[in-house]
Amino acid sequence: LEQLKTLPKIELHAHLSGSVRYSTILRLLNEELASDYHETSDEKLKSEIQLMEELKSKPTTNCTSHRSLTECFQIFTILHRLLSNLNILEQVTNEILHDFQSDNCVYLELRTTPRNIFDSKTGELKVSKEQYLKTVVNVIESFEKENLMKVRLILSVDRAKGLQDGLENVELAKKFKSKHVIGIDFSGNPHVDSFQNYESLFQLCDSYELKTTVHIAEIWEDKDVDFILKKIRPDRIGHSVCLTKEQIDYLIRNPIPIEICPTSNLVTKCVDVIENHPFYEFYTKKDTYPLVICTDDFGIFDTSLSREYSLISTAFNLSFKEMFDLSRRSIKCIFDQSNELVSFLEMVFNEFEKKNF
Ligand code: 5GP
């Protein structure tokens, strides 16, 4: 793990709310409990703290005691309540960027679902989606002035929130295109609705020249897989674990870069053990298949990008050099293919190669 920490890395699948530091989530929950007024009952808050503590203590190599995806989605509801003012949003975003950078991430595509935030007592709009987005963009801009890691933003469309809400996010992405926003992520609870109802949004993204990535095959009942792989053909796909043999063969013949999220897939029971992750099938059947190792939600899963690299390297017996090559190949999958950025990343990887191999 220590050696993998030194590796330059690229993160392309990290949700902002899920990447709030584990210790910060606990601190915010405890602060809420200690405050004079909180609308959530003491009992509920205590059970939420317990839920977070249990999540941390779960082993991540045996699926039988893990949380279902539905349980994980309950945690996002808690996180969204905790991140309900712009100061906290600013603080946690800043922490997330620093955490990735200290793990030697050199390029990060962070994603988030812009949210209107309402006052829980009066029902008044406290924060608009645009204010939410501006806050995140401002943090990224200040961070980039003082740090080496480059950051871009992807806006998420939550399949559970309906087409109108998604349309607003795509329009916002278009408006903020020159301000670090480069694409759209289609995510949200896979048990709710279907991406087939979002076809018009995929077309809109194309017409706005926004890159797209779609969460697929997180559950075996996912009916959208063929529609996404054959009809939509997004720029990348996330997870892509619960695939049939035909779907894997189809992808090998017609590759779409895959964002691989090992711990997330274990915790949410997509795979029982990491050795059964389809990563290896793609990796061995086609040595140039574009595969990018990612964290998904490093805060709630209490992991790091290096730790995800370590899981893959240990499970499939990949050497440090093979992990380096895998990491370098991620450059081809980033959404911002501007010459300046690609040359910067190539330089970072070339220098590391010269020094280490
Ligand atoms: P946010 O968009 O609030 O920054 O990050 C949390 C949101 O990302 C969740 O509400 C959910 O819509 C999405 N998300 C995070 N992790 C996952 C995941 O593993 N699978 C899916 N389908 N969506 C996720």
Quick one: CATH class?
Answer: Alpha Beta
- Compressed to H and E, one letter per element, the order equals HEHHHHEEEHEHEHEHEHEHHEHHH
Global Rg: 20 Å
Unreliable segments (pLDDT under 50, ≥5 consecutive)? 59-66
Strand content: 5-15%
Using the alpha-carbon principal axes, give the shape: globular
CATH superfamily: Metal-dependent hydrolases
Q: What structural category arises from helix and sheet content?
A: alpha/beta
Question: Residue-averaged pLDDT, rounded?
Answer: 93
Key features of this structure:
single chain, about 350 residues, alpha/beta, TIM Barrel, eight-stranded parallel sheet, two-stranded antiparallel sheet, globular, binds guanosine-5'-monophosphate
Condensed summary:
With 357 residues, the chain is of the alpha/beta class.
What does this structure look like?
With 357 residues, this protein is α/β, with parallel strands linked by helices. The protein has one domain: TIM Barrel. It is built from 15 helices and ten strands. The strands form two sheets. The protein has an eight-stranded parallel β-sheet, with helices on both faces. The protein has a two-stranded antiparallel sheet with strand order 3-4. Helix 8 links the parallel strand 6 and strand 7. It starts with a helix and ends with a helix. The relative contact order is 0.14. The structure holds guanosine-5'-monophosphate. Guanosine-5'-monophosphate binds next to strand 5.
